[in-house]
Amino acid sequence: MSGSELTFGDFTEENEPFALFGAWLKEAEASEINDPNAVSLATVDADGLPNVRMVLLKGYDVHGFVFYTNFESQKGQELLGQKKAAMCFHWKSLRRQVRLRGEVEVVTDAEADAYYQQRPRGSRIGAWASKQSRPLEGRFALEKAVAEYTARYAVGEIPRPPYWSGFRIKPVSIEFWHDRKFRLHDRMEFRRETPDDFWSKVRMYP
Ligand SMILES: Cc1cc2nc3c(=O)[nH]c(=O)nc-3n(C[C@H](O)[C@H](O)[C@H](O)COP(=O)(O)O)c2cc1C
């Protein structure tokens, strides 16, 4: 590849970002030592103060990027309040970054149930036991809650807690960044005004 070409391989001519994202995630799954689907999730609170933390991407398609969490957590409250979010993937071994932003929607109950039921039993109990993001007086209180829910759901299916579900970010911007020599990196952003529009593509100075 000559120095003037972008390092996006066969995807340089693509008019939508999902195929390239899929290819990069697949390569990350082969190269990262753990959690290639780990992604930082930025939200904003009611005062406009940003907040960021890691989550695990559990699905993506043309409709958006999905992760699961406790809706009573700080991020849950911020997302339900402001309905906007951003994500940033960094795949160190590949020297690549993908960032995206857009409005969020709640996944359907059917989607959330399907994902919840495939989680390990301990994680399903944990979802009941953890009052995520609220003060915990000590580790024992958490272990006691785990023991109580383990006893309550000793037999049969564990229902999905009503406050536990998924959010989908419907991106209006996705930017691909690839490290190149002398910090002359490649950047390509796909943009659209609304999630129903066609994408346009812009290359940017690094
Ligand atoms: C690699 C990694 C993956 C994580 N994945 C999730 C996740 O998918 N969902 C989640 O609720 N928290 C996840 N967490 C924990 C969050 O980063 C965070 O501590 C927690 O959700 C509380 O965030 P909040 O107080 O902003 O709501 C993950 C943490 C790490 C380090």
Describe this structure in words.
The protein has 5 helices and 9 strands; from the N terminus they run H-E-E-E-E-H-E-E-H-H-H-E-E-E. It is α+β, with helices and mostly antiparallel strands and 206 residues long. The protein has helices at 18-31, 74-82, 109-117, 121-129, 139-152; strands spanning 38-44, 50-56, 59-61, 64-70, 84-91, 96-106, 164-178, 186-191, 200-203. The two termini are 19 Å apart. It has one domain: Pnp Oxidase, Chain A (Roll). Flavin mononucleotide (FMN) is lined by residues 35, 38, 51, 53-56, 67-70, 73-75, 132-133.
Task: Describe the structure in brief.
With 206 residues, this protein is α+β, with helices and mostly antiparallel strands.
CATH architecture type: Roll
Based on secondary structure, the structural category is alpha+beta
**Overall radius of gyration:** 19 Å
CATH top level label: Mainly Beta
Ligands, deduplicated: flavin mononucleotide
Extract low-pLDDT stretches.
Answer: none
